[in-house]
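Researcher: We plan to redesign the surface later, but first we want a full-length starting point. Tokens attached.
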């Protein structure tokens, strides 16, 4: 291993960030798309790309397999937390009678106010 940072390599930051970003984006995009094929593509492509990032870190010799496994687990937990919070916020808006857009995510609407004379 060509790790010059000592014990600070676990978990792999590249794998953590890539996994969190890709999985959260895939979950939100798959939920908001109308096509089942496109949703399936999002759900397959995100973990595959995250796996490529993880395997490249091991291949380049900058991390051990346990480092990228821990990074993947941490990134997946972060994505799960974000997606759960988004779902909860969408449920909160629907309970208050506000439109949360198609697919359940929050949508902010701007309303103009005019004074009537």
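Model: Full-length starting sequence:
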């Amino acid at each position: 291993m060509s790790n010059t940072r000592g014990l600070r390599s676990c978990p792999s930051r590249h794998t953590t960030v890539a996994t969190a970003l890709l999985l959260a984006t895939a979950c939100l995009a798959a939920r908001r798309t109308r096509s089942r094929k496109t949703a399936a593509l999002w759900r397959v492509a995100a973990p595959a790309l995250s796996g490529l990032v993880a395997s490249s870190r091991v291949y380049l010799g900058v991390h051990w397999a346990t480092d990228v496994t821990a990074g993947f687990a941490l990134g997946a937990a972060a994505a799960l937390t974000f997606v759960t919070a988004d779902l909860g916020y969408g449920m909160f808006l629907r309970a208050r009678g506000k439109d949360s857009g198609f697919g359940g995510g929050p949508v902010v609407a701007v309303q103009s106010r005019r004074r009537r004379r």
